[in-house]
Specification:
This protein has 360 residues and is of the alpha/beta class. 50% of the residues lie in helices and 14% in strands.
């Protein structure tokens, strides 16, 4: 058992060493820009459902931009909201260049499909409705490399409480991995809350409720397309984290469920490695505790957690969100069981998203 444990931890440290190396490389990376865009021409797609409290903030952020938005058009698509969301967007039409649409079908995918029919620019920027952006966002966008897909940074909004801190740490680890492995030329993830894609490269799988961001990335990789990334802090958007355990659990079930349709080898290899490692780690810890080897159990936990801490420290430091790190130990303990439970639940049960139920 001891030899197996050493092998287990060694493999994880190698994985995390590569991730840290990739993150450092991402920080040093300067995207190649053929030409700075003096006149930015871009359509921004924002599907929404019952986002009344978030849309007001986003509209304020857009109107507070420091640069000229003459060539930028915002396409808002209402996915059958039951609050005042649509009225808020309609009212904003007199103040900014936006197109307000109502989705005929149901779901985010149907909304995006309808919006894409109205896109007029070569590249399209995907946003979520609950994000917040800085005043220099579109100034920085003029210098962003535009390949077939450009991965842009997304971080959690500052929220109080242990639960919000756990969700933030978990989210930041995924964002860190996204840029780490993109810098190592093995992109595995992308986040549709802030994603720049060539119009002709967008892929919407009709058989899944979500996951179009990652599936578009995988399709571009498969076809030998150009995947870029930009860690410019001015391009960072902040997004709302789940407010309670139920919302968090269903979000992670949704993310796990869509993985069943992935075919990208890099993503599958990493996903299965993390899942198998977590399950063996939990088994090893349980064995040592049952046998009374508490020091061995503690050593195993600390060795794994220290690798996570090194990586997360670098990521949170870059994004200036160190506050959640106060709850790192609690988050590490909770995370021991969360990964396998979410994976199993996503295969057996339906999940809720935007007041609707879906199955994987």
């Amino acid at each position: 058992m001891l030899a197996f444990t050493v092998l287990l931890i060694s493999s994880y440290w190698i994985f995390m060493f590569l991730s840290i190396k990739g993150w450092r490389k991402a920080l040093e990376h300067k995207g190649v820009v053929d030409k700075v865009q003096n006149h930015l021409s871009l359509d921004v797609l924002i599907p929404y459902r019952n986002e009344e409290r978030h849309l007001k903030r986003l509209l304020h952020d857009i109107q507070s931009q420091s640069s000229d938005l003459a060539g930028v058009r915002f396409i808002f698509i209402d996915d059958h909201s039951e609050d005042m969301s649509f009225d808020i967007i309609e009212k904003a039409k007199s103040e900014m260049d936006l197109l307000s649409l109502k989705c005929v079908g149901n779901g985010k995918k149907a909304a995006l499909n309808e919006a894409l029919d109205h896109v007029r620019t070569k590249h399209v920027l995907f946003w979520d409705a609950d994000i917040s952006i800085g005043a220099e966002y579109f100034s920085a966008m003029r210098n962003t490399p535009q390949g077939d897909l450009t991965i842009l940074p997304v971080i959690p909004l500052e929220q109080k409480g242990i639960w919000a801190s756990y969700a933030a740490l978990d989210f930041l680890s995924l964002i860190g991995m996204t840029f780490s492995w993109a810098a190592l030329q093995r992109p595995i993830m992308a986040n549709g809350a802030n994603l720049l894609v060539a119009n002709q490269a967008v892929y919407l799988d009709p058989k899944t409720a979500s996951g179009d961001d990652v599936q578009t990335l995988h399709r571009i990789k498969e076809r030998g397309g150009v995947v870029c990334f930009d860690l410019d802090e001015r391009l960072t958007v902040k997004t709302h984290m789940p407010e309670d355990f139920k919302a968090f659990f269903h979000q992670r079930m949704r993310w796990a469920a869509k993985s069943s349709r992935y075919s990208d080898k890099d993503t599958l290899l990493m996903g299965w490695f993390i899942l198998v490692f977590q399950m063996f780690l939990l088994t090893g810890l349980s064995y040592f505790i049952i046998q009374g080897y508490m020091k061995m159990a503690l050593a195993l936990f600390l060795l794994k957690s220290s690798a996570d801490f090194l990586f997360l420290h670098l990521v949170t430091k870059h994004f200036s969100v160190q506050n959640p790190m106060r709850f790192f130990i609690i988050a590490s303990l909770f995370n021991l069981v969360m990964t396998p439970i979410v994976f199993i639940a996503s295969r057996l049960f339906s999940f809720e998203w935007k007041e609707r139920k879906y199955r994987s």
